[in-house]
């Protein structure tokens, strides 16, 4: 952590672009951390990583409407820019870019990004417009904030693959840096949506991480069949109760390609509802 210094808040796209241009002209490396606000320690760990690797750190705070379906929680998603800025002041953040919706999506806006097959299964199947909204807004942010490096969290595994595909395919001159998932002391992956959970739901939600740990332990002891591992995960979650499982997937690390047996680095992907709150998580095994 650095000395407490309040970041400068910028709302205009051209203003933050000039900040980046000036810094890079002076030979300084710029890092950006795209967020939707409601910052927690997971976000702040990305800011810390950016602060370690870059000379100027910019955090974007924008609740992106195009990645929410009509029935999702866009309107109630937590927003508190002052609180976010106060947290960032202790983590070496120099600027906050907080554009209005009209800045990002002016009247007549029609363009969207389709990144192809990596966005189709799992989250893409459940939320068909989600990754197009993510890819579009990230491309816009990296155009307005053309940083040297952009920092994302491993918790959103498929999102990191979508962003990486978009960066490669469109020759975006920003390096993608993926940082480890930050967890609560009981294993629950940090998420802004955790605030929606009551105490009982919060306790039950820890079973997501516990079930993936069980799968990892089974692999460490020689189990290789995905069907057996998935059954063990489902049994543990059923025993805890109150968890509506959306999907479990085992994919080759760095891809969304499903595997039937563990033959190398593999990622377990999981999505479930606890009460009305949808949570995602993942863990590498093998």
TrEMBL record:
Catalytic activity reads:
(R)-pantoate + beta-alanine + ATP = (R)-pantothenate + AMP + diphosphate + H(+)
Q: Any idea which positions bind ATP? A: 36-43, 153-156, 182, 190-193
Compartments reported by the entry: Cytoplasm
Please name the NCBIfam families in this protein's record: cyt_tran_rel, panC
Checking PANTHER family in the record gives: CYTIDYLATE KINASE/PANTOATE-BETA-ALANINE LIGASE, PANTOATE--BETA-ALANINE LIGASE
How is the subunit organization of this protein annotated in UniProt? Answer: Homodimer.
**This protein is called what?**
Pantothenate synthetase
Question: Which organism was this protein described from?
Answer: Aeoliella straminimaris
